Amino acid sequence: MLTSRALLLPSVPTMLIDEQRGDYTEMIEALTKAGESLAAEGPEVIVAVSSRWTSPGPFLADDAHEHKSVIDLPGFGVEPRYDCPGHPAVARAIVEVANKAGVRAANGRRGTDTGISIPLHFLVRAHDVPIVPLSLGEGTRDEHRAWGEAIRMALHAREERIAFVVGGALAFNQHAFNLRREVVEAIDLDEAVLAALRAGRWSALAELQPEWIEKAWPDAGLRHLEVLRGFLLGDLVGHVLEHERSPGIGTALVEFPLEVAPGA
């Protein structure tokens, strides 16, 4: 059983720095509000795809009983911590359904890396909802969409009330960020991706200009968005709740209402 919306969550360590300084940005406020809306639905499990976890083999679902934090972006000077419970049964069910659908998947262990630990810090502050971290792979867009479809089938069949989220950035040129150097191509990439999501024209993600890709360094090649596209079972329109930019980096909070009906 799914909650009524899927979320694309922003993930950049500067959000934690802003909070530490007492600077509650529009993004932090929007993400906190989204957490309140999610809490009202009482999710028993959150399944979270991380743009920072790429498997060189099959797609992976972390089936640990407890997750420890992974510090995978040390250059920002903060150490995101989101230790939380897991849900082995849901993680194993996802893998089982994926394999039956012809998607190569397995259980593995990763913990909560920055792709999901940062947004979850604002979305579910109590650390009390079990989390199932999921990986990306190194394969094609089609393979990532098939992974997303398999996740949707698995979660729909469960009795628990489950929320699905995808954490990551859009443009993610960390070198430009460190130099405080704006990258025009990163701005262009962000605008093109958000326009595509607003219009439900997901095919545009495969049409981004090569110079944008070269200069903006899109997070995970935007493969996390392809998983989300597959999960939605169609090119649905997204509601962009907030967009935030810093030199070389862009993040967005986007909501996708789900019609959770029989057969969905």
Major sheet characteristics: 6 strands, mixed
Annotation, overall tally of beta strands: 10
Rg, nearest Å = 17 Å
Q: Would you list the SSEs in sequence order as H and E?
A: EHHEEEEHEHEHEHHHHEE
CA distance, first residue to last residue:
10 Å
- What fraction of the residues are assigned to beta strands by DSSP? 15-25%
Structural class: alpha/beta
Strand order of the largest sheet: 7-2-8-1-10-9
- Low-confidence region ranges: none
Note down, in words, how this protein is organized.
The protein is of the alpha/beta class and 264 residues long. It contains nine helices and ten strands. It has helices at residues 14-20, 26-40, 88-100, 114-123, 141-156, 174-179, 184-199, 210-216, 223-232, and strands spanning 2-10, 45-54, 59-62, 66-67, 84-85, 105-108, 131-136, 162-168, 239-246, 249-257. Strand 9 (239-246) and strand 10 form a beta hairpin. It is globular and about 45 Å long. The model has no long low-confidence stretch (mean pLDDT 95).
Overview in brief:
This protein is of the alpha/beta class and 264 residues long.
Highlighted features:
264 residues; 6-stranded mixed β-sheet; 10 strands; 38% helix; globular
Q: How is the topology of this model organized?
A:
Elements: E1 2-10, H1 14-20, H2 26-40, E2 45-54, E3 59-62, E4 66-67, E5 84-85, H3 88-100, E6 105-108, H4 114-123, E7 131-136, H5 141-156, E8 162-168, H6 174-179, H7 184-199, H8 210-216, H9 223-232, E9 239-246, E10 249-257
Parallel strand pairs: 1-8, 2-7, 2-8, 3-6
Antiparallel strand pairs: 1-10, 4-5, 9-10
Helix pairs in contact: 3-5, 5-9, 7-8
